[in-house]
Write a structure and sequence with these properties.
This protein is an alpha/beta fold. It contains seven helices and seven strands; from the N terminus they run αβαββαββααβααβ.
Length: 165
């Protein structure tokens, strides 16, 4: 792997509303990663919550953006997915969540400014995104480790070494 790969500015962005059960899975995965692993200085973990357009600064400073979120693809709850390039806008927009509607717009604006990071979405089909509650459903809570491993696999693909704490 070339040394330039090691210098990529990588952002792992967990998005979602933690007040709506499984909607907060992206934030919970970032919390899990932060608690269990040490990352190089050029890899940033960000709790994006429902910040939407306010994430433009974070996104525009990234060479690679790994978004972790609940994504409704019409699959069985708990099914994971990896989306990239042209798959992201139409699948993410299908969710009809405020932070998700903003994500494609933020990516488009970054592209208009001649900076469009390589973007990967790591997601899971939620079971419940309408019940008020801080806890994930047991099914989706069980997928946090799987999603974290998918993020770690993306970092490995980029030649980034991560150490367990």
């Amino acid at each position: 792997m070339s040394s330039s790969k090691a210098l990529l500015r990588i952002t792992i962005l967990g998005v979602g509303n933690i007040l709506l059960s499984d909607e907060g899975v992206g934030v919970r995965v970032v919390e899990f990663l932060n608690a269990h692993y040490s990352f190089p200085d050029h890899v940033h973990l960000v709790d994006g919550g429902v910040l939407g357009m306010r994430l433009m600064g974070v996104i525009s400073e990234s060479d690679v953006l790994i978004v972790v979120d609940a994504v409704m693809n019409g699959n069985a709850p708990g099914m994971t997915c990896r989306l990239e390039a042209g798959q992201i806008p139409r699948r993410v927009l299908a969710k009809q969540s405020l932070h998700q509607i903003d994500l494609p717009e933020v990516l488009a604006l970054c592209g208009a400014l001649d900076h469009h990071p390589e973007t990967i979405v790591i997601g899971v089909e939620p079971q419940d995104i309408s019940t008020m509650g801080l806890e994930l459903t047991p099914l989706i809570a069980a997928s946090v480790g799987v999603l974290a491993n998918m993020v770690l696999a993306e970092l490995e693909r980029l030649g980034i070494e991560v150490a367990p704490k």
